[in-house]
Amino acid sequence: TVVDTPGYGDAIDNTDSFRAIIQYIDEQFERFLRDESGLNRRNKVDNRIHCCFYFISPLGHGLKPLDIEFMKQLHNKVNIVPVIAKADVLVKKEVLRLKKKVMEEIEKHEIKIYPLPDCDSDEDEDYKDQLRQLKESVPFAVCGSNTTLEVRGRKVRGRLYPWGVVEVENPEHCDFIKLRTMLITHMQDLQEVTHEVHYENYRSERLAKGAPVPKRTTSLPDHEKGDDKDRILQEKEAELRKMKEALAKMQAQMQHKN
Amino acid sequence: TVVDTPGYGDAIDNTDSFRAIIQYIDEQFERFLRDESGLNRRNKVDNRIHCCFYFISPLGHGLKPLDIEFMKQLHNKVNIVPVIAKADVLVKKEVLRLKKKVMEEIEKHEIKIYPLPDCDSDEDEDYKDQLRQLKESVPFAVCGSNTTLEVRGRKVRGRLYPWGVVEVENPEHCDFIKLRTMLITHMQDLQEVTHEVHYENYRSERLAKGAPVPKRTTSLPDHEKGDDKDRILQEKEAELRKMKEALAKMQAQMQHKN
C-alpha cells in the first residue's frame, strides 16, 4: 500500500503540517496493538507504515527547516528514507553536492534515517557491493514518469524534453533502480525494524501512559513463527508482488499528481 | 540593480515573510519622496523597484497560498512579472498546463500583474507580433546557467545533463530571451507605471496619514522634461547597459545561488 500526502508543506504556515501524518502512523500502531491483544490474532492485518520516503526539493540547497522538523518528529516512529525528488532538474555535480549537503545536515541535526543493515562478512561479493552502492547513494535522487517512450528502438519509461529523453530506469540518469532495489531487498528488514524498534517504542509509551491493553505473550509476529515454510514463502511472494504494484503506482504518481 | 531575496518562503511559518520585502519597497519610495521634496532635486537617485520577478516553483501545480498572498500584498506597490523558475524540469505539455493554471488563478484571485502595454494600431507588424508573443508567454518559463558549453561548434550558455544540453538562449528550450526582450523593450513603461501608479499610490497614502512632506510642484520626473534630448538619450543608453549587466548577473544567480 502506498499512502501519499499531496499538498504537504504548501501552506503559508506549516507549523501543524506533520500532525496528520503522525496521527495516521499512530493509528496504524494502535490498531495493530488492539488486534494483537485481541482474541483472533491470527487474522490481524498489518497496516503499519514500514517505510517513509521523505521527498526533498531539488531546488533548495539542502534541508529546509520544515524537512528537519518533520524528520525529527517522525524518526522514532517510522523508517525514514530520504529521497531527492525530480532530480532531473540537477546536473551531475549538483546532485552530488546536494546529496552531500543533505547527509551533513542529517548528521548535524542528529536525525535518524533508516539504517541500511551492515552486511555479514560471509555474504557474497556481489551483495556486499550492491549494499555499498546503495549506502553511498542515500539520499536517492529520483525522477518518475508515467509515459513510455521509444529511444533508439527500446521502449523506456521516461520524460521527453526538447533537449533529450530522461530515462527513469537508466542508472546514469537517476537512482530509481537503486531505490527499487533497496525497497525490495530490504523490505523484510524494514518490517523488522518497524516491528522491533518503532512499534515497540509506541507500545511501551502507550502502555506506560495509556489505558491498559491486554497482555501480549510473544514478541514475534505470527508469520515468523516458522512452522509452515510453504505458507511463509507464499506470503513473501505475495508481499513482493504487492510491492511491485505499489512501486509502479508510485512511479506514476511521482510526476503527475493531478 | 538586482535585489535578490534568497531563502524567501523556506521557513516553516512564512506568515511574515513578505514584511521585509514590503518594507524595502516602501523605503525606496520614502527616500524618493524625500529627495523629490528637498532642495537639490536634480540629483536624486531613483532606487525604486520598477519590476519584481516573482519566481513560481515549477514543481507545484499552480500558485501556492504563499504566492497568492505575496502578490496580493504587493500588486499595488510594484510591477509584478510572474516567472516560472527552473522550467527545464517541465516537459512542453507541463509548461503549457502550468502557465494556463497560473493565469487562471491570477484572474480568479484578482491579482494585478504588470500589464504589458496595448499596442497602437499604427505600430509596425513586427512589433505587434512581438508584443502578442510576449503577452502569450506570461508567466515566462525560464532557466538559467552561469556556464557556457560548446554545442555543435557553437558556444552556448547552458546546462549539461546526461541526456542533453539545455540552452538558456534557445527559444525552444525556455522563455529567457522573451523575458529579456520584455524587460529591455518595456523598461521605460515599467518605470512610468512605477512612477505614475505605484509611487502615486504610496505618495497619496503617505500624505494622507503621515507627517507633512513639502509640496511637490510637478508630477513629471526630471528626465522627462525633454529640454535636453542628447542627455536623455545618453541616460537611456546607460540604463540599457546597466540592465544588460543586471541580466547577466541575474542569469548567473538564478541557478547557482550558493
Protein architecture, described:
The structure is a homodimer of 258-residue chains. Chain A has 258 residues and is mainly alpha-helical. The first copy, chain A, has 2 domains: 16-209, Rossmann fold; 224-257. In chain A, 46% of the residues lie in helices and 11% in strands. The first copy, chain A, is built from 7 helices and 6 strands. Chain A has helices at residues 19-37, 65-74, 92-108, 125-137, 176-185, 187-209, 229-255, and strands at residues 52-56, 80-84, 140-141, 148-151, 154-161, 164-167. In chain A, the strands form 2 sheets. In chain A, strands 1-2-3 form a 3-stranded parallel β-sheet, with helices on both faces. In chain A, α5 (176-185) packs across α6. Residues 216-220 and 222-226 of chain A have low confidence and may be disordered. Chain A binds chain B through residues 10-15, 57-61, 64-66, 69, 85-86, 88-89, 91-92, 159-167, 172-173, 257-258, and chain B through 10-15, 57-61, 64-66, 69, 85-86, 88-89, 91-92, 159-167, 172-173, 257-258.
List the topology elements:
Two copies of one chain form a homodimer.
Chain A: H1 19-37, E1 52-56, H2 65-74, E2 80-84, H3 92-108, H4 125-137, E3 140-141, E4 148-151, E5 154-161, E6 164-167, H5 176-185, H6 187-209, H7 229-255
Helix pairs in contact in A: 4-5, 5-6
